[in-house]
Write a structure and sequence with these properties.
Elements (H helix, E strand, L loop, with lengths): L2 E3 L11 E10 L16 E8 L5 E3 L1 E3 L1 H5 L10 H14 L5 E5 L5 H8 L3 E5 L4 H7 L4 E2 L5 H7 L2 E7 L8 H11 E12 L1 H6 L12 E2 L2 H10 L3 E8 L5 E7 L18 H5 L1 H19 L7 E4 L3 H8 L5 H6 E5 L17 E2 L13 E3 L5 H11 L6 E4 L5 E4 L1
Parallel strand pairs: 6-7, 6-9, 7-8, 9-10, 14-15, 14-17, 15-16, 17-18
Antiparallel strand pairs: 1-5, 2-3, 3-4, 4-11, 10-13, 12-13, 18-19
Helix pairs in contact: 2-3, 5-6
The structure holds zinc ion.
């Protein structure tokens, strides 16, 4: 079975799932091709919202074997991510303590905690687990489970950064945290904040790997179900605004500390999502037309991310935008010389700019790291053409 369709909420089991947006049948966003003509499987990309606990979730759950065995995203590649991990470890590490990182990827976060004298363990089902093992960061090539928590716990710190969105069985996830955490331990979770995603039109963060899109309430419901408490909540900058939540096995004191004042999802923004997405594409065409000295659209992209795949494969994306894209640049060597499914433009290294003397605006698809990419293009590369990326409320920002 390549995918299953859910009819009940992943957290509360409620059956009242309301349609939010249909982005059409799409290929897997991280499945890069060596030949653009290659035939790939398509899966429905439809977002629903549980009317009981408010969790946003996809209807289709693609078999994880299809998605995570050859995972091309390497977390250590981004300078921004490395800094984020260093800071988190610096703020929370306990010298001589034990920690486990769920979804440890290439071991970037493990390495940071190890430097602070912690005994570290990674858990990651992808081939990147082998890579972190070669760096002497013990990593289980597996999915996080109650068996792992039983066998390898207790931990002072459990981290799960950008993992819960990928997790189908959230009950087992939370139960395993409860089993593996020391009585006074902390579980640090980071998830992209769905209220920001809806408000800022980050619909291209919707792809098959991300099964759920979180706000505070569904997380509170899940935690309570498995004897965990939300002890702290804060916003961090990753992925266009993420929630960092610290879970404990004992109730926080005082409870008021965890009152969260950021806005939850605006219902108008949710019901108008389809028309806002269509406007968003049309606005990009207008921006490119106004900038261009040519009759037809011509531009290149930066960031062959899963976001770019959703951006181009959504049924709302006009053909004109697909045809006008000349090539995409990505700093990850594993992605270069390949193609995003459904997009005929090749992925190159940044060196291509040195060979491209002609006029060419850049659209940054990795909007979550847009500012650092703008700096790199302008200061390191001396790139003079316009740079365009998505800003607050989904408006296109143009740097001339
Ligand atoms: Zn629910």
């Amino acid at each position: 079975m390549k995918y299953k369709t859910i009819t009940k909420c992943r957290i509360c089991g409620g059956g009242d799932l309301k349609h939010v947006i249909d982005l059409g049948e799409q290929p897997l966003a991280n499945n890069l091709l060596s030949n653009p003509e290659e035939q790939v499987d398509l899966y429905p990309l439809v977002l629903m919202q549980c009317q009981a606990c408010s969790l946003l979730q996809l209807t289709a759950v693609v078999n994880p074997e299809e998605m995570f065995t050859n995972y091309p995203f390497r977390s250590g590649i981004s300078q921004f991510w490395q800094e984020h991990c260093k800071k988190l470890a610096g703020d929370t590490a306990i010298n001589g303590g034990k920690m486990v990182d769920i979804g440890s990827n290439d071991g970037t976060l493990l390495e940071c905690y190890k430097k602070y004298g912690m005994e570290v363990l990674g858990v990651d089902p992808s081939n990147l687990a082998n890579e972190s093992n070669t760096k002497r960061l013990q990593t289980l090539k597996d999915y996080w489970s109650t068996e792992i928590a039983d066998k390898y716990g207790f931990w002072d710190i459990i981290t799960a950064l950008n993992v819960m969105a990928h997790t189908d069985n959230l009950d087992e996830f939370a139960q395993a945290v409860n089993i593996g955490l020391k009585p006074n331990g902390k579980c640090i979770i980071e998830v992209p904040y769905a209220a920001n995603m809806i408000k800022n039109l980050q619909f291209d963060a919707i792809y098959h790997e991300h099964l759920s899109y979180f706000t505070v309430e569904p997380l509170r419901e899940l935690s309570a179900k498995w004897g965990l408490f939300i002890a702290e909540i804060e916003m961090v900058e990753t992925h266009g605004g993420s929630l960092r939540i610290i879970l404990t096995k004992t109730p926080p004191c005082p409870l008021e500390k965890v009152v969260f004042i950021a806005p939850e999802i605006n219902s108008n923004d949710l019901s108008n999502l389809e028309s806002r997405i269509k406007d968003h594409y049309e606005q990009l065409i207008t921006v490119l037309q106004e900038l261009s000295p040519f009759a037809s659209l011509l531009y290149c992209g930066y960031g062959a991310s899963a976001k770019a795949a959703t951006f181009f494969n959504s049924k709302q994306c006009p053909d004109e935008l697909k045809q006008g894209l000349k090539f995409i640049v990505d700093d990850n060597a594993d992605k270069q010389h390949r193609y995003i499914s459904g997009v005929n433009s090749k992925i190159h290294s940044i060196d291509i700019f040195a060979k491209q003397p002609e006029w060419m605006p850049i659209v940054i698809f990795s909007w979550n790291i847009a500012e650092s990419l703008v700096k790199k293009l302008r200061e390191d590369l001396g790139y003079k053409n316009p740079i365009i990326y998505k800003g607050e409320n989904g408006d296109w920002i143009v740097k001339q």
